[in-house]
Specification:
Blueprint (H helix, E strand, L loop, with lengths): L2 H24 L3 E6 L17 H19 L4 E4 L9 H10 L4 E8 L9 E6 L5 H11 L9 H4 L22 H15 L7 E7 L2 H4 L5 E8 L3 H7 L2 H27 L12 H4 L16 E10 L15 E6 L2 E9 L2 H14 L4 E6 L2 E3 L3
Parallel strand pairs: 1-2, 1-3, 3-6, 4-5
Antiparallel strand pairs: 4-6, 7-9, 7-10, 8-9, 10-11
Helix pairs in contact: 2-9, 6-9
Bound molecules: zinc ion.
Length: 371
């Protein structure tokens, strides 16, 4: 065979394999299912306190995982928990991120002080803290209070019960918002045929468990354990199969759109949104980078955002701030204090501008845990 023909065949083969490899790399292959609550955190409780959110979420999650595995043996299904154990919110996110999942589905059951509140709703991450969403958001975030003393450090000084604390989310850029919304709308669409027919729609809220996920992610509230009718449905195990299969139908449809979109090699319905930090030049001279420090010192962290701020950004409120990049986040800090007492002295005045500010320890340019 002439060498030229061989070359053509070879390059054709190469093109086909690399093309299919690329496709298989980007198609939906891994899903993380997150059954809300667990262990010492029961989640929402029924009126008689006998039925717990954590048991319903686990039951529906395991059934959903089974359905996916049975229909798509190639898809890897990862659970944040498969038993009745306590898992921190940031640990759940970490499981999804570490595994480079393509989709994160968190399953919950709602509760409200108003017994009339009924229906399902699906949340995507967002800064919106409008009243009705906020009740759910605070409820689902409050679990971090059970996670031990260091929660302030781990969640950027976030206090779930302090509305001012939610300011950290207002600068958020959600790279996967479109895809998350797509999945959320499919879930709500299929829930219309479900045991709880009232749909409260798609909501955006500052939910900690979704905050740092690096893939499309949704948090589904199946219904209200506090509502007598919803409760009856949620407490019936046969309905757990129904909920699982409705979420599975949404997943199936989402996967079709996702796979088609990527195998076409074009971004249509599910186009990737480039975060602002990536599209902007990081060479900008007006930006200050934290110089590498060899010694240990204290700083006051005022916020964590996923883009670089200009030094004259109004978000910095005229303060002279530096940032430390940790993962996808830019943690903005004020001051450099050799002792924690000196940092504590400044904290009060800084909290006037940044109520959620807290002290961090920096060693060799990175944040290390405060003892
Ligand atoms: Zn919950």
């Amino acid at each position: 065979m002439p060498i030229r023909v061989l070359l053509v065949i070879f390059s054709l083969l190469w093109a086909t394999t690399s093309q299919s490899q690329e496709n298989s790399m980007v198609m939906l292959k891994k899903v993380v299912i997150d059954p809300g609550h667990g262990g010492r955190d029961p989640g929402a409780l029924s009126a008689d306190r006998k039925v717990k959110e954590k048991d319903i979420t686990l039951s529906v999650s395991l059934k959903l995982g089974d359905l996916i595995k049975r229909s798509y043996p190639d898809i890897e299904v990862i659970f944040t928990r498969k038993t009745d154990v306590f898992i921190e919110l940031d640990k759940r996110t970490e499981i999804a991120n570490k595994n480079k999942a393509d989709l994160f589905i968190s399953i919950h059951v709602n509760a409200a002080t108003a017994r009339a509140a009924t229906g399902s709703e699906t949340f995507v991450m967002g800064a919106d803290k409008s009243s009705s969403n906020f009740e759910v958001t605070m409820l689902e975030n409050s679990v971090i209070m059970m996670e031990g003393e260091d929660y302030a450090t781990r969640y950027e000084g976030f206090d779930p019960n302090n509305p001012e604390s939610y300011i950290i989310f207002t600068l958020l850029q959600n790279a996967h918002l479109e895809q998350s919304l797509e999945m959320a709308s499919l879930v709500q669409k299929h829930f219309n045929n479900g045991p709880i027919k009232v749909s409260r729609g798609i909501k955006q809220g500052p939910l900690l468990v979704l905050w740092k996920t690096s893939m499309p992610s949704v948090l589904i509230e199946l219904g209200f354990i506090s509502n007598p009718l919803d409760f009856k449905i949620l407490n019936n195990h046969a309905n757990h199969d129904k909920f699982a299969s409705l979420i599975f139908n949404a997943f199936k449809e989402y996967k079709q759109i996702y796979d088609k979109d990527y195998s076409n090699g074009e971004s249509t319905a599910l186009k990737k949104v480039i975060p602002q930090s990536e599209s902007k030049s990081t060479q900008d001279t007006s930006l200050k980078k934290v110089r590498k420090e060899s010694e240990t010192h204290y700083r006051i962290q005022i916020m964590a955002v996923n883009k670089i701020l200009r030094s004259n950004s109004p978000d910095l409120k005229g303060r002279d701030a530096n940032y430390i990049k940790m993962g996808n986040l830019y943690k903005y800090t004020i001051g450099e204090y050799p002792t924690i007492d000196m940092a504590k002295k400044e904290l009060g005045s800084i909290r006037k501008d940044f109520p959620q500010a807290f002290i961090i320890l920096v060693k060799d340019g990175t944040i290390v845990p405060l003892n």
